[in-house]
From TrEMBL:
SUPFAM superfamilies in the cross-refs: Bacterial luciferase-like (SSF51679)
UniProt xrefs under InterPro entries: DMSO2_SphG, Luciferase-like_dom, Luciferase-like_sf, SsuD_RutA_monooxygenase
Pfam hit, one: Bac_luciferase
Domain (Luciferase-like) ranges: 9-328
Single Gene Ontology MF annotation: monooxygenase activity
Sorted UniProt keywords: Flavoprotein, FMN, Monooxygenase, Oxidoreductase
Protein name: Dimethyl sulfone monooxygenase SfnG
NCBIfam families: LLM_DMSO2_sfnG
Repressor in keyword set: no
Domain of life: Bacteria
Amino acid sequence: MSQSTAPIKFAYWVPNVSGGLVVSNIEQRTDWSYEYNIKLAQAAEANGFEYALTQIRFTAGYGAEYQHESVSFSHALLAKTEKLKVIAAILPGPWKPVLAAKQLATIDYLTQGRIAINVVSGWFKGEFDAIGEPWPEHDQRYARSEEFIRSLKGIWTQDNFSFDGKYYQFQNYTLKPKPLQQPHIEVFQGGSSRAARDMASRVSDWYFTNGNSVEEIQKQVHDIRSKAKANQHQVKIGVNAFIIARDTEQEAQAVLQSIIDQANTEAVHAFGDATRQAGAASPEGEGNWAKSTFEDLVQYNDGFKTNLIGTPQQIAERIVALKHVGVDLILSGFLHFIEEVEYFGQHVLPLVRELEQQQEITAKSA
Ligand SMILES: Cc1cc2nc3c(=O)[nH]c(=O)nc-3n(C[C@H](O)[C@H](O)[C@H](O)COP(=O)(O)O)c2cc1C
């Protein structure tokens, strides 16, 4: 539904937490240091990636023992890149909307309009407990996030802005300077539950969802876009994928198998227990991890399910199939980030662009 003619976009997960993107003892030539991340960001922007997404974590949940803070880390990466947009994750609760609006407007100003925000709603009760934050029930967390997003957009676009919500109230606030990006800084959100999708169909510019099959993604796209249309709102869709591109399919599958065979069983189970407080606990049971198996959870946002695992040609075809059902962006994770981002840019991306062009020609001549 509503396939965009624009080229599909690519983002990557910034490894600003330790342990890489899979909960496995397999060797990962990925590092959470600033030095590694600068090289990665520069390689990514040189290889066709338009966005980078940093993660917000306060405590270890799945072996990610060390975590750099998302907003400051995003700003530091922006300072070392030229075109990349970096999406900083912010959690309503610890952040208030006026503070976030001001902080991001300043970063926007300092980085020539390249910051974006991912409003996360929380899935890890242990983390909230550890930092002294109350833990509202699932759909209340989204009600709060929705007020947070409405507040941000109001502050970024209007003078003397007032808000009188259940979670936030403020009066006649005028932010100066406003962000450089017009009409405002882009707002992403994560989650798959009913509440997450409904929020996307009302207020978010981008909806990020966990990895899944084309068929399941198509159902989500249809659901969100038909509701958004009724709300006269437009929302773009980003899908998570753990990409394993190798010269042969056998090689790629062997890497997947080794990741799963060497899974850190204890950490995967602990993560699975925590997610049951989040995705599976949403009232309708359709949250992010509601149907995840042990193998799925080894990549903590179900990235294997998207099946971008194989040869460059197989992967390019599957990416274009996702675009065909309405996906605008692939959010990617890799085992050995820098070298695989470069391989992706050299071997997969050109095939994606070729296939997109062929499809456009076919569509025009039809
Ligand atoms: C792509 C993506 C990125 C996310 N990033 C973070 C993050 O950095 N920190 C965090 O605490 N939660 C993050 N989340 C979690 C979501 O905000 C949400 O709390 C979780 O997916 C549960 O959603 P659901 O029950 O509505 O499906 C992310 C989710 C997705 C899909």
